[in-house]
Protein backbone atom coordinates (compact mmCIF):
# COMPACT_ATOMS: atom_id res chain seq x y z
CA UNK A 1 0.00 0.00 0.00
CA UNK A 2 1.23 3.53 -0.82
CA UNK A 3 1.55 5.78 2.21
CA UNK A 4 2.97 9.27 2.63
CA UNK A 5 5.83 9.64 5.13
CA UNK A 6 5.91 13.04 6.84
CA UNK A 7 5.82 14.38 10.39
CA UNK A 8 3.48 12.25 12.52
CA UNK A 9 -0.14 13.19 13.13
CA UNK A 10 -2.88 12.11 15.55
CA UNK A 11 -5.63 9.89 14.13
CA UNK A 12 -8.88 9.62 16.11
CA UNK A 13 -11.25 6.79 15.21
CA UNK A 14 -14.59 6.94 17.01
CA UNK A 15 -17.84 5.07 16.58
CA UNK A 16 -20.40 2.65 17.88
CA UNK A 17 -19.70 -0.68 19.61
CA UNK A 18 -18.45 -3.46 17.34
CA UNK A 19 -18.31 -1.24 14.28
CA UNK A 20 -14.87 -2.61 13.44
CA UNK A 21 -13.01 0.47 14.73
CA UNK A 22 -10.35 -1.47 16.62
CA UNK A 23 -9.49 -3.82 13.75
CA UNK A 24 -9.17 -0.97 11.27
CA UNK A 25 -7.25 1.23 13.70
CA UNK A 26 -4.82 -1.61 14.43
CA UNK A 27 -4.30 -2.38 10.73
CA UNK A 28 -3.73 1.29 9.91
CA UNK A 29 -1.23 1.75 12.76
CA UNK A 30 0.73 -1.28 11.58
CA UNK A 31 0.84 -0.11 7.95
CA UNK A 32 1.95 3.43 8.72
CA UNK A 33 4.20 2.51 11.68
CA UNK A 34 2.18 4.41 14.31
CA UNK A 35 1.34 3.39 17.90
CA UNK A 36 -2.15 2.07 18.48
CA UNK A 37 -4.17 2.76 21.64
CA UNK A 38 -7.45 0.94 22.32
CA UNK A 39 -9.23 3.21 24.81
CA UNK A 40 -12.19 0.81 25.12
CA UNK A 41 -9.74 -1.71 26.62
CA UNK A 42 -8.84 0.87 29.29
CA UNK A 43 -12.52 1.30 30.31
CA UNK A 44 -12.89 -2.50 30.23
CA UNK A 45 -9.88 -2.96 32.55
CA UNK A 46 -11.32 -0.49 35.09
CA UNK A 47 -14.63 -2.39 34.88
CA UNK A 48 -12.89 -5.72 35.52
CA UNK A 49 -11.13 -4.23 38.54
CA UNK A 50 -14.49 -2.98 39.88
CA UNK A 51 -16.14 -6.38 39.33
CA UNK A 52 -13.33 -8.27 41.04
CA UNK A 53 -13.41 -5.95 44.02
CA UNK A 54 -17.17 -6.06 44.58
CA UNK A 55 -17.70 -2.46 43.42
CA UNK A 56 -20.65 -3.33 41.14
CA UNK A 57 -23.84 -4.70 42.71
CA UNK A 58 -25.98 -7.58 41.41
CA UNK A 59 -28.18 -5.19 39.44
CA UNK A 60 -25.14 -3.89 37.58
CA UNK A 61 -25.06 -0.58 39.46
CA UNK A 62 -21.50 0.58 40.09
CA UNK A 63 -20.43 2.19 43.37
CA UNK A 64 -19.22 5.37 41.66
CA UNK A 65 -17.54 6.85 44.72
CA UNK A 66 -15.61 3.66 45.53
CA UNK A 67 -14.52 3.25 41.90
CA UNK A 68 -13.45 6.91 41.71
CA UNK A 69 -11.41 6.43 44.91
CA UNK A 70 -9.82 3.27 43.52
CA UNK A 71 -8.52 4.92 40.32
CA UNK A 72 -5.02 5.60 41.76
CA UNK A 73 -4.72 1.84 42.46
CA UNK A 74 -5.54 0.85 38.90
CA UNK A 75 -2.56 0.62 36.62
CA UNK A 76 -3.41 -0.12 32.99
CA UNK A 77 -0.81 -0.98 30.39
CA UNK A 78 -0.38 -2.59 26.99
CA UNK A 79 1.87 -5.60 26.45
CA UNK A 80 3.37 -6.22 23.02
CA UNK A 81 3.05 -9.95 22.25
CA UNK A 82 5.61 -11.92 20.21
CA UNK A 83 3.13 -12.14 17.28
CA UNK A 84 2.92 -8.33 17.19
CA UNK A 85 -0.54 -8.16 18.81
CA UNK A 86 -1.22 -6.06 21.88
CA UNK A 87 -2.68 -7.31 25.18
CA UNK A 88 -4.11 -5.17 27.97
CA UNK A 89 -2.69 -5.44 31.46
CA UNK A 90 -4.31 -4.59 34.78
CA UNK A 91 -1.78 -4.09 37.58
CA UNK A 92 0.74 -6.12 35.55
CA UNK A 93 -1.63 -9.05 34.92
CA UNK A 94 -2.54 -9.92 31.32
CA UNK A 95 -6.36 -9.55 31.30
CA UNK A 96 -6.90 -9.45 27.54
CA UNK A 97 -9.29 -12.42 27.40
CA UNK A 98 -11.26 -11.52 30.50
CA UNK A 99 -11.98 -7.94 29.45
CA UNK A 100 -13.53 -9.11 26.15
CA UNK A 101 -16.16 -11.40 27.76
CA UNK A 102 -19.85 -10.56 28.04
CA UNK A 103 -19.71 -9.95 31.82
CA UNK A 104 -17.34 -7.03 31.35
CA UNK A 105 -19.24 -5.91 28.22
CA UNK A 106 -22.48 -5.77 30.20
CA UNK A 107 -20.99 -3.54 32.91
CA UNK A 108 -18.57 -1.33 31.01
CA UNK A 109 -20.98 1.40 29.88
CA UNK A 110 -22.11 2.09 33.46
CA UNK A 111 -18.51 2.27 34.68
CA UNK A 112 -17.42 4.47 31.79
CA UNK A 113 -20.18 6.97 32.65
CA UNK A 114 -18.46 7.82 35.98
CA UNK A 115 -16.90 11.30 35.52
CA UNK A 116 -13.78 10.57 37.64
CA UNK A 117 -13.07 7.43 35.61
CA UNK A 118 -13.30 9.41 32.38
CA UNK A 119 -11.13 12.27 33.65
CA UNK A 120 -8.42 9.89 34.82
CA UNK A 121 -8.37 7.85 31.60
CA UNK A 122 -8.53 10.91 29.33
CA UNK A 123 -5.40 12.34 30.99
CA UNK A 124 -3.60 9.02 30.40
CA UNK A 125 -4.79 8.91 26.78
CA UNK A 126 -3.60 12.48 26.15
CA UNK A 127 -0.18 11.51 27.52
CA UNK A 128 0.01 8.64 24.99
CA UNK A 129 -0.47 11.18 22.19
CA UNK A 130 2.21 13.66 23.32
CA UNK A 131 4.65 12.79 20.56
CA UNK A 132 1.88 12.17 17.98
CA UNK A 133 2.29 9.25 15.57
CA UNK A 134 -0.72 7.60 17.17
CA UNK A 135 -3.97 5.93 16.13
CA UNK A 136 -6.47 5.95 18.98
CA UNK A 137 -9.93 4.44 18.87
CA UNK A 138 -12.88 5.01 21.20
CA UNK A 139 -16.03 7.07 21.60
CA UNK A 140 -14.78 10.56 22.48
CA UNK A 141 -11.32 10.76 20.95
CA UNK A 142 -12.17 13.35 18.28
CA UNK A 143 -14.41 15.36 20.61
CA UNK A 144 -12.70 15.27 24.03
CA UNK A 145 -9.32 13.52 24.08
CA UNK A 146 -7.84 15.08 20.92
CA UNK A 147 -10.26 17.73 19.60
CA UNK A 148 -7.50 19.01 17.32
CA UNK A 149 -6.51 15.63 15.87
CA UNK A 150 -5.46 16.07 12.23
CA UNK A 151 -7.62 13.13 11.09
CA UNK A 152 -10.94 12.10 12.64
CA UNK A 153 -13.02 9.17 11.45
CA UNK A 154 -16.52 8.29 12.67
CA UNK A 155 -17.49 4.68 11.98
CA UNK A 156 -21.02 3.35 11.92
CA UNK A 157 -23.04 0.39 10.67
CA UNK A 158 -26.53 -0.89 11.61
CA UNK A 159 -26.76 -2.62 15.03
CA UNK A 160 -27.82 -5.90 13.39
CA UNK A 161 -24.69 -5.95 11.19
CA UNK A 162 -22.50 -5.15 14.18
CA UNK A 163 -24.15 -7.90 16.27
CA UNK A 164 -23.49 -10.52 13.57
CA UNK A 165 -19.82 -9.51 13.42
CA UNK A 166 -19.43 -9.55 17.18
CA UNK A 167 -21.13 -12.94 17.45
CA UNK A 168 -18.68 -14.42 14.94
CA UNK A 169 -15.76 -12.94 16.87
CA UNK A 170 -16.97 -14.32 20.22
CA UNK A 171 -17.75 -17.77 18.80
CA UNK A 172 -14.28 -17.76 17.22
CA UNK A 173 -12.83 -17.19 20.69
CA UNK A 174 -14.88 -20.10 22.08
CA UNK A 175 -17.22 -17.80 24.04
CA UNK A 176 -20.74 -19.29 24.14
CA UNK A 177 -23.56 -16.79 23.46
CA UNK A 178 -26.50 -16.10 21.13
CA UNK A 179 -27.21 -13.49 18.45
CA UNK A 180 -30.07 -12.06 20.56
CA UNK A 181 -27.85 -11.65 23.61
CA UNK A 182 -25.13 -9.90 21.58
CA UNK A 183 -27.64 -7.59 19.83
CA UNK A 184 -29.21 -6.66 23.16
CA UNK A 185 -25.76 -5.83 24.57
CA UNK A 186 -24.85 -3.69 21.55
CA UNK A 187 -28.16 -1.77 21.56
CA UNK A 188 -27.95 -1.19 25.28
CA UNK A 189 -24.34 0.07 25.03
CA UNK A 190 -25.30 2.37 22.11
CA UNK A 191 -28.04 3.90 24.27
CA UNK A 192 -25.81 4.31 27.33
CA UNK A 193 -22.84 5.64 25.33
CA UNK A 194 -25.02 8.23 23.55
CA UNK A 195 -26.93 9.34 26.62
CA UNK A 196 -24.33 9.62 29.38
CA UNK A 197 -23.74 13.14 30.70
CA UNK A 198 -19.95 13.08 30.59
CA UNK A 199 -18.53 13.20 27.02
CA UNK A 200 -21.23 11.07 25.34
CA UNK A 201 -20.62 9.30 22.06
CA UNK A 202 -20.85 12.06 19.43
CA UNK A 203 -19.55 12.51 15.95
CA UNK A 204 -17.02 15.38 15.92
CA UNK A 205 -18.24 18.09 13.52
CA UNK A 206 -15.07 17.74 11.46
CA UNK A 207 -15.01 13.91 11.36
CA UNK A 208 -15.18 11.92 8.12
CA UNK A 209 -18.01 9.33 8.17
CA UNK A 210 -17.42 5.70 7.34
CA UNK A 211 -20.30 3.21 7.00
CA UNK A 212 -18.48 -0.04 6.41
CA UNK A 213 -21.55 -2.32 6.06
CA UNK A 214 -20.76 -3.30 2.48
CA UNK A 215 -16.98 -3.00 2.56
CA UNK A 216 -14.44 -5.80 2.63
CA UNK A 217 -11.63 -5.52 5.15
CA UNK A 218 -9.23 -4.74 2.28
CA UNK A 219 -11.46 -1.96 0.94
CA UNK A 220 -11.80 -0.49 4.41
CA UNK A 221 -8.04 -0.59 5.05
CA UNK A 222 -7.34 1.10 1.70
CA UNK A 223 -10.04 3.73 2.33
CA UNK A 224 -8.34 4.60 5.62
CA UNK A 225 -4.86 4.79 4.07
CA UNK A 226 -6.29 7.18 1.44
CA UNK A 227 -7.77 9.41 4.17
CA UNK A 228 -4.43 9.31 6.04
CA UNK A 229 -2.50 10.39 2.94
CA UNK A 230 -5.01 13.19 2.29
CA UNK A 231 -4.77 14.40 5.91
CA UNK A 232 -0.98 14.52 5.74
CA UNK A 233 -1.13 16.44 2.44
CA UNK A 234 -3.70 18.86 3.90
CA UNK A 235 -1.39 19.88 6.76
CA UNK A 236 1.61 21.47 5.02
CA UNK A 237 3.00 22.60 8.39
CA UNK A 238 3.66 18.95 9.32
O1 LIG B 1 -14.62 -0.10 22.14
P1 LIG B 1 -15.17 -1.04 23.20
O2 LIG B 1 -16.46 -1.70 22.83
O3 LIG B 1 -14.17 -2.02 23.68
O4 LIG B 1 -15.50 -0.10 24.45
C1 LIG B 1 -16.03 -0.60 25.64
C2 LIG B 1 -16.88 0.45 26.34
O5 LIG B 1 -16.05 1.49 26.84
C3 LIG B 1 -17.95 1.11 25.50
O6 LIG B 1 -19.21 0.50 25.69
C4 LIG B 1 -17.99 2.53 25.99
C5 LIG B 1 -16.69 2.74 26.71
N1 LIG B 1 -15.78 3.67 26.05
C6 LIG B 1 -15.92 5.00 26.31
O7 LIG B 1 -16.84 5.38 27.03
N2 LIG B 1 -15.04 5.89 25.79
C7 LIG B 1 -14.04 5.48 25.00
N3 LIG B 1 -13.18 6.37 24.51
C8 LIG B 1 -13.89 4.10 24.69
C9 LIG B 1 -14.80 3.22 25.22
Describe the structure.
The protein is an alpha/beta fold. It has a single domain, classed as 3-Layer(aba) Sandwich (Rossmann fold), CATH 3.40.50.300. The protein is 49% helix and 16% strand. It has helices at 21-32, 39-52, 64-70, 96-100, 102-112, 115-128, 141-145, 159-172, 179-195, 217-234, and strands spanning 10-15, 35-38, 76-80, 86-90, 93-94, 134-138, 151-156, 208-211. The strands form 2 sheets. A 5-stranded parallel sheet has the order 2-6-1-7-8. Strands 3-4-5 form a 3-stranded antiparallel sheet. A hairpin with a 5-residue loop joins strand 3 and strand 4 (86-90). Helix 1 (21-32) crosses helix 10 (217-234) and helix 2 packs across helix 6. It is globular. The relative contact order is 0.22. The model has no long low-confidence stretch (mean pLDDT 93). The site of 2'-deoxycytidine-5'-monophosphate (DC) has 13 residues, from helix 2, helix 5 and helix 9.
Chart the SSEs and their pairings.
Elements: E1 10-15, H1 21-32, E2 35-38, H2 39-52, H3 64-70, E3 76-80, E4 86-90, E5 93-94, H4 96-100, H5 102-112, H6 115-128, E6 134-138, H7 141-145, E7 151-156, H8 159-172, H9 179-195, E8 208-211, H10 217-234
Parallel strand pairs: 1-6, 1-7, 2-6, 7-8
Antiparallel strand pairs: 3-4, 4-5
Amino acid sequence: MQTTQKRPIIIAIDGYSSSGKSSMAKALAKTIGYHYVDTGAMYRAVTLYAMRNGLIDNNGTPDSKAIADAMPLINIGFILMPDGSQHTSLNDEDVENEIRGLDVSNNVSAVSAIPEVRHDLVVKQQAFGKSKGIVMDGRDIGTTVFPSAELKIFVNAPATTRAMRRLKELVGKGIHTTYEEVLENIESRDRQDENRKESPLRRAHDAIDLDNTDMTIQQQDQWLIDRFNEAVEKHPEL
